[in-house]
Amino acid sequence: MIKICLSGLGRAGSQIARYLLERDDAKIISACCAPDSPKRGKDLGEILNYRDTGIIVDTVEDMKPYLSGTLPDVVIDFSTPWAALKNAELFAKMKINIVMGTTGFSPDEETHLFSMIKKHKTGLIYAPNITMGVNVLMLLTELASRLLSNYDAEIIEMHHKNKKDIPSATAKKISGVINGNSLDETKAADTPISSVRAGGIIGYHKVVLAGEHDKIEIVHESMSRNAFAEGALYAAKFINHKTGLFEMRDMLKFGELLADYFSGQGGRFASNMI
After folding, report:
1. Could you tell me how many helices (H) and strands (E) the chain has, helices first?
2. Fold of 132-222
3. Half-sphere exposure of residue 12, counting CA atoms within 13 Å on the CB side?
4. Could you read off the pLDDT of 17-70 as tens digits, one per residue?
5. Are 41 and 56 in contact (CB under 8 A)?
6. CA distances from 181 to 19, 51, 149, 206 (A)
7. CATH no. of 2-130+226-254
8. Buried b (16+ CB within 10 A) or exposed e, 150-180
9. Second label for 258, Cα 20 to 30 Å away, from 180, 183, 236, 250?
10. Rg value, the chain, Cα
11. Which DSSP letter does residue 219 get?
């Protein structure tokens, strides 16, 4: 059973907590919040309108003394960029691996996060979108954009009205995939992205590849925040006991899948596409 600490109890973090509390292959042993959060000092169950769990939500600093006695295997972070960076340094020092689902980092903040992981020789899976389905969308997009390199590409993304980063980190990541730069979303600005912030939309991404005479649309829509929770647990199991920086594509073995596909074409694509 994997032992998990939750960092951040907003919409996504709270749903992940509910999901994990019903699992028998994972155990939440701690949960943390910001110093000024009204959730501080409360039982996790009270925050979730759930049964008492015996897990008292607190700041990472105040959790340190008893964390040292029972360390989690992995932290799942869905907080804010500022809190995530501050907490990641403490977790990395304690050799606790991290699933980073928080978005909205600047390029400098990303660089700082990655350097902390290298410095302390811990493990991080960096996931602007943790859902399994949207990461398969990225694989399909990468495959289609390679085969249809002369087609025009556009991305449409929709989220709830309170989401702050526009466009979404996932949309920027998809743009990176289309432009052959999947490892660095901040440098991929060539693909037009249209953003919608309205109501309670959980998450919607569509890629349009249009030629002169036909088009392809690849769509992913999250119907429940359990999609995040499911992906977060898969990612936590993947990063456990690993060292270094990983993406969801590493967990899903995107590179191997694409290589297998193109090598199966009699070598027609291998020389110029892989």
Report:
1. 11, 10
2. Dihydrodipicolinate Reductase; domain 2 (3.30.360)
3. 30
4. 999 999 999 999 999 998 889 999 999 999 999 999 999 999 888 776 656 567
5. yes
6. 33, 46, 14, 19
7. 3.40.50.720
8. ebebebbbbbeeebebebbbbbbbbbbbbbe
9. 236
10. 19
11. E
Distance separating alpha carbons of residues 255 and 274, to the nearest angstrom = 9
From the list 39, 42, 163, 220, the catalytic residue is: 163
The single-letter DSSP state of residue 97 is: E
As to burial, measured by CB atoms within 10 angstroms (0-12 exposed, 13-18 middle, 19+ buried), residue 69 is: exposed
Single out the catalytic residue among 39, 42, 93, 159: 159
pLDDT tens for each residue of 66-110? 565 678 999 999 999 999 999 999 999 999 999 999 988 999 999
Residue-range domain boundaries for the chain: 2-130+226-254, 132-222
Could you confirm whether 160 is annotated as catalytic? no
Residue 159 designated active-site: yes
